Amino acid sequence: MENLIVKVEHLYHRYATQWAIEDINFEIEENGVIGLLGSNGAGKSTTMNIICGVLKQTRGKVYINGIDTLKNPVAARKYIGFLPQKPPLYPDLTVDEYLRFCAEIHWMERKKINAAVGETEERCGITHMKDRLLRNLSGGYQQRVGIAQAILHDPKFVVLDEPTNGLDPNQILEVRQLIREIAEDRTVMLSTHILSEVQATCSTIKMIEHGRVVFSGSVEEFDNYIEPNTLYAVFDLPPLPDELLMIAGIKKVEMVGGHGVRLWYDGERDTIKQVIRESMVRGWEMTEIRSEKSSMEAVFAKLSGK
Ligand SMILES: Nc1ncnc2c1ncn2[C@@H]1O[C@H](COP(=O)(O)OP(=O)(O)OP(=O)(O)O)[C@@H](O)[C@H]1O
């Protein structure tokens, strides 16, 4: 428990009429970016709000750095930075005034505030905007300020609820880059319903559907979760399925149209070479071969439907 940044145990939450999350369990011990993936209404915000102490769970435990968030919320919050889905910005404050205000809310020592605000502005690329009113910033810069308030007190664990939502493509790239940078020396958990977001930014994924965790693992494992790797090959003189099944590593063969063949294989890179070699030796006249992986979208759809 000592080394765990986050531990979530049998977490449940019920709003007035429905359970939003049921029996969520996970542990996080590494730095990097963790994606909390799920379709709209899956329970991502509810989970994040509880972890960050802005919503009280119906049942279950959350430990941040070993501290029970129900028993000792103030101590736990020192280790957490949170950017909710709607950034809590005050439009009539300048960037500088707002970040100073946030530093005070975090009970930061007065003598440390100047340096912390300056360093955070620098890190988030908003130093040149520090005297601007928040209301006059673009969406991308407002999001940077939102991220700045989340990392100002140097927390070990940063939670970002849909951080690129509503941004234009350039702003998305910039905010993603910033997220990767701040994750170099801390753990960042971000929620999204966009698969490409996860691929671009995250090292591991936890997927929530209907209030339950349905997948937890690396992006690559997620990619391969449902379908094993397959090869798709086209031959001018296609072999019989039994001939292909003789090749080491090939587990299943499906003929596609007159010339195409889909081969389920065990993922060994050598299998592709073997198929090419056999085709040449036996005169199958291969014109195409490529490795197919089930797309993230396909995995997402299958897991969502489960
Ligand atoms: N304050 C609330 N009162 C009642 N039901 C709520 C409330 N907030 C969320 N819900 C419901 O709880 C479920 C989970 O919602 P939640 O906002 O956690 O999902 P989400 O994965 O974050 O979705 P989104 O990406 O749309 O924000 C949904 O069915 C939602 O309608």
Overview of this structure, please?
With 306 residues, the protein is an alpha/beta fold. It has two domains: 6-223, 3-Layer(aba) Sandwich (Rossmann fold); 230-305, Alpha-Beta Plaits (2-Layer Sandwich), CATH 3.30.70. 34% of the residues lie in helices and 28% in strands. It is built from eleven helices and 14 strands. It has helices spanning 44-51, 73-77, 95-105, 110-123, 139-151, 169-182, 195-201, 219-223, 241-245, 270-282, 296-305; strands spanning 6-14, 19-28, 32-37, 59-64, 67-68, 80-83, 157-161, 187-192, 204-209, 212-218, 230-235, 250-256, 260-265, 286-292. Strands 6-7-8-3-9-10 form a six-stranded mixed beta sheet, with helices on both faces. A four-stranded antiparallel beta sheet has the order 2-1-4-5. The chain has a four-stranded antiparallel beta sheet with strand order 12-13-11-14. The longest helix is centred in the middle third of the chain and has 14 residues, at 110-123. Bound molecules: adenosine-5'-triphosphate. Adenosine-5'-triphosphate is lined by residues 15-16, 20, 38, 40-46, 193.
